[in-house]
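Quick one, T. Sequence first:
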Amino acid sequence: MAKEIPGAKPVPLGQLVRAQDRLSFVYLEHCVVHRDANAITARDTSGTRHIPAAMLGAVLLGPGTTVSQQAMVLIAESGSTAVWVGEHGVRYYAHGRSLARSATLLQTQAALVSNQRTRLRVAREMYAMRFPGEDTRSLTMQQLRGREGARVRRLYREHSERTGVEWTRRDYDTTDFAGGTPVNQALSAANTSLYGVVHAVIVALGLAPGLGFVHTGHALSFVFDIADLYKADVSIPIAFDIAAREVADIGAETRRAVRDHMKSGHFLDTCVRDVKALLEETEDIAEYGPDAFDSDLVMLWDGADGAVSAGIAYSDEPGGYDDFDDSFDDSADLPDVDDLVPEDRR
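Structure tokens:
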């Protein structure tokens, strides 16, 4: 009789929920996160809340959270993930396993960015999201950058007029935050906060933060790509609003303003939806949930033929590796190593 494995039993597949039916993100702070059967519990001074693990996409663990090992086990077994963040997801620190049970979305990202034609198409779509109603399909990257620059300068002018904050140009020193003008300080703080939220979304989806389409060469290139989609609605108006006020700590006030903007949770849902739309994820791909558990099977790359199942002794099958290796006879006379190396290289 087999010995029973200690610990809590895994969540039955039938109790898990498909990705599109889950809560995308749940943010927790200043609480103890534990497990009660198949629910995640969050206990603070006001009491204990139960969150069905099968309904979760990602748990954002904010300041003051203490999480147990069993809670992490349940999150992982439910096809969810945990991301350690700052207040209301404003800063990203670390993450657990991604939401994806397969590498489909990651492979899509890598394939799109590795081909000049598809990379240009995705980049154009990113710019098209900023220019609603305009056709960007025939524009070059140089033309798109010029149009984007004009749009951003116009936004700066409009918010300057709206708030009465003087604006000259975007000017900042990453080594001297306090040396910038109040509005430039606020813009830097707002952008950093926005990057944190977007970074959390990207890693939760199992994507590579460094594989950007517009930006390139930086470990956060894709984070910058996606964050740029929302600066006009998040970073820029918030920064000018903060700069128009008399505040003691511009950086802290700006981060709190971005945090409050994220409280509704709609931004996270929008960001997830936009990322998947840009990468053209089809509805029939189950990234996590009960329909995705077959993706735990590891496949072997088979060249032009795609992929074949792993875990099979192909040498035992006709046409497998056994046929390929039949020509090798370890009893045959092998050439001396020196005979294989040209004289001028010995």
